[in-house]
């Protein structure tokens, strides 16, 4: 089989958490464009439905919407059962939902600290664990987590210690699962984006005013676009990446090089 054929995802069954908008929506669209059926998983049911309808209309693939809060095990288990009931298997799972809070460390409440860790780290664990169980049973699959360049550097000038710590945790969790599940044919990799233009950055009252400062620091002098993460997502979801596991892919326009 040639490489372009291996990059195709025809017949693959996938889900993307936080898939209603931003990076998750872009990944879901790419998976469907490459031939996969996609479950868009999100807190916001209406937005998930509209995202799934757009993907189905644009690609002709099956795209369904499932409401779930990734911090709730019961939601994640119900979500996995719904994907299995609709698709019969799970070949690739994107554990992508995440939030950022910009609060100085000395002022951060325990509630705010725990909120970020619960969504960004525990939510990724619960989603990956649920997908991993299915994949082990069916003989294999690919799990992809969304970490961040913030796992590697401390962003400035905004304070975001809980986010940075959660994302460093995501990478080490990803590597741990990759080693535990290697012989079960379940691959686990992370994508670490640099600053990407999504609601998380463009609509945040604390982050939006900083974009010019970040761009001044960035070697490419701009934010990344969600679609600039699509190729790595398609590669990691399918058979082209059969020997790739336990890796973190930093896609940041060289931001962390300086
Ligand atoms: P967005 O805020 O645009 O989208 C995040 C999505 O996740 C939203 O649809 C949101 O739903 C959903 N979500 C939030 N909490 C939960 C939850 N508990 N359960 C289920 N879904 C949830 O963010 P991005 O697309 O920018 O970010 C996606 C991922 O990429 C995150 O993990 C983020 O940390 C990471 N990332 C982003 C970067 C950037 O610059 N944008 C850079 C590096 C990493 P709702 O609409 O209901 O809030």
Structure description:
With 258 residues, the protein is of the alpha/beta class. Helix 2 links the parallel strand 1 (13-17) and strand 2 (37-42). It has one domain (3-253): Rossmann fold. It has helices at residues 3-7, 22-33, 45-59, 73-87, 110-138, 161-180, 199-202, 211-217, 230-237; strands spanning 13-17, 37-42, 63-67, 92-95, 141-146, 186-193, 248-251. It contains 9 helices and 7 strands; from the N terminus they run H-E-H-E-H-E-H-E-H-E-H-E-H-H-H-E. NADPH dihydro-nicotinamide-adenine-dinucleotide phosphate is lined by residues 17-18, 20-24, 42-44, 47, 68-71, 96-100, 119, 123, 146, 148, 193, 195-196, 198-201.
Could you say which overall geometry the principal axes of the C-alpha atoms support?
globular
How many helices? The count is: 9
- Give the strand order of the largest sheet, numbering strands 1, 2, ... along the chain: 3-2-1-4-5-6-7
Give me the oligomer status.
single chain
Could you say how many structural domains there are in total?
1
Structural class computed from helices and strand pairing: alpha/beta
Radius of gyration: 17 Å
Helix-strand sequence: HEHEHEHEHEHEHHHE
What's the CATH class label? Answer: Alpha Beta
The unique ligands bound to this protein are: NADPH dihydro-nicotinamide-adenine-dinucleotide phosphate
How far is the N terminus from the C terminus?
40 Å
Instruction: Please give the number of β-strands.
Output: 7
- State the CATH superfamily name: NAD(P)-binding Rossmann-like Domain
- Percent strand equals 5-15%
CATH architecture descriptor:
3-Layer(aba) Sandwich
The CATH topology assignment is Rossmann fold
Uncertain residue ranges = none
Q: Can you summarize the main beta sheet?
A: 7 strands, parallel
The overall pLDDT, averaged over residues, is 98
Q: Percent of residues in helical segments?
A: 40-55%
């Amino acid at each position: 089989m040639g490489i372009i054929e291996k990059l195709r995802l025809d017949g693959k069954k996938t889900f993307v958490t936080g898939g209603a908008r931003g990076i998750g929506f872009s990944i879901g669209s790419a998976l469907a464009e490459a031939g996969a059926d996609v479950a868009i998983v999100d807190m916001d049911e209406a937005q998930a439905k509209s995202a799934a309808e757009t993907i189905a209309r644009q690609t002709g693939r099956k795209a369904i919407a499932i409401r779930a809060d990734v911090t709730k095990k019961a939601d994640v288990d119900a979500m996995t059962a719904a994907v299995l009931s609709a698709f019969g298997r799970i070949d690739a799972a994107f554990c992508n939902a995440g939030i950022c809070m910009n609060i100085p460390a000395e002022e951060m409440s325990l509630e705010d600290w725990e909120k970020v860790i619960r969504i960004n780290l525990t939510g990724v664990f619960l989603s990956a664990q649920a997908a991993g169980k299915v994949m082990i049973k069916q003989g294999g699959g690919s799990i992809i987590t969304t970490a961040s360049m913030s796992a590697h550097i401390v962003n400035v000038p905004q304070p975001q210690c809980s986010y940075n710590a959660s994302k460093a945790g995501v990478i080490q969790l990803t590597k741990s699962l990759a080693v535990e599940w290697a012989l079960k044919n379940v691959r686990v990799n992370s994508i670490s984006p640099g600053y990407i233009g999504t609601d998380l950055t463009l609509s945040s009252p604390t982050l939006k005013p900083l974009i010019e400062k970040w761009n001044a620091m960035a070697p490419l002098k701009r934010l990344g676009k969600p679609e600039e993460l699509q190729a790595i997502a398609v590669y990691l979801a399918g058979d082209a990446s059969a020997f790739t596991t336990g890796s973190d892919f930093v896609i940041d326009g060289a931001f962390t090089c300086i």
